[in-house]
């Protein structure tokens, strides 16, 4: 069986160019340090491939195994890891300084749902017209949001003014 090394993967059979290697046979038993030709002969005898498992050790560790099966298992493991991976999204909640209590409650329920899903929330407070003269109302509102979410979220960025809007980012605990 003559396999050449694939790009990015482990070196296989003739691709291994080290004169001596640490060999692990097909049963998983440590054979010890052997010549590369002896290891290749054992692999051919077993009808399997010689695969470099740990290239950085001294001497490199090689194992006799079915390379196709090894690649398939690695592929399955990578797919499983990708499946479990989750990206954290930033959801935005927009408010106005003079928001009514019921509207505020609805926004807070949405925010709680976002935190339960593991997402971050960006609270944007928009000032229009003469509301810019009363920025303290916006600061009070964002402080109220901060207090109402202390058990389930932490403040990632404090409220700051960006042009005509005040922004604060919260992350789930």
From TrEMBL:
Residues 12-81 form the Translation initiation factor 3 N-terminal domain. It is found in: Cytoplasm. One of its GO terms (biological process) is ribosome disassembly. GO terms for molecular function: ribosome binding; translation initiation factor activity. GO terms for cellular component: cytosol; membrane. The keyword Mitochondrion does not apply. Keywords: Cytoplasm, Initiation factor, Protein biosynthesis. Residues 88-172 form the Translation initiation factor 3 C-terminal domain. InterPro entries: T_IF-3_C_sf, T_IF-3_N_sf, Translation_initiation_fac3_CS, Translation_initiation_fac_3, Translation_initiation_fac_3_C, Translation_initiation_fac_3_N. NCBIfam families: infC. Monomer. IF-3 binds to the 30S ribosomal subunit and shifts the equilibrium between 70S ribosomes and their 50S and 30S subunits in favor of the free subunits, thus enhancing the availability of 30S subunits on which protein synthesis initiation begins. Belongs to the IF-3 family. This is Translation initiation factor IF-3. It comes from Methyloceanibacter superfactus. The lineage of its organism: Bacteria, Pseudomonadati, Pseudomonadota, Alphaproteobacteria, Hyphomicrobiales. The gene is infC.
């Amino acid at each position: 069986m003559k396999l050449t090394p694939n790009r990015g993967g482990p070196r296989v059979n003739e691709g291994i160019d080290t004169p001596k290697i640490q060999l692990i046979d097909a049963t998983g038993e440590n054979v010890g340090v052997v010549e590369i030709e002896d290891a290749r002969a054992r692999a051919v005898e077993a009808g399997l491939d010689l695969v470099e498992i740990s290239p950085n050790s001294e001497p490199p560790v090689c194992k006799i195994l079915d390379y196709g099966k090894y690649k398939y298992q690695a592929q399955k493991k990578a797919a499983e890891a990708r499946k479990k991976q989750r990206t954290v999204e930033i959801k935005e909640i927009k408010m106005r300084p003079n928001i009514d209590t019921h509207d505020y409650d609805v926004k807070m329920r949405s925010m709680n749902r976002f935190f339960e899903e593991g997402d971050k929330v960006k609270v944007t407070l928009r000032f229009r017209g003469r509301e810019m003269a009363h920025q303290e109302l916006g600061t009070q509102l964002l402080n109220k949001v901060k207090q109402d979410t202390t058990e389930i979220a932490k403040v990632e960025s404090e409220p700051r003014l960006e042009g005509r809007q005040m922004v604060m980012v919260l992350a789930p605990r």
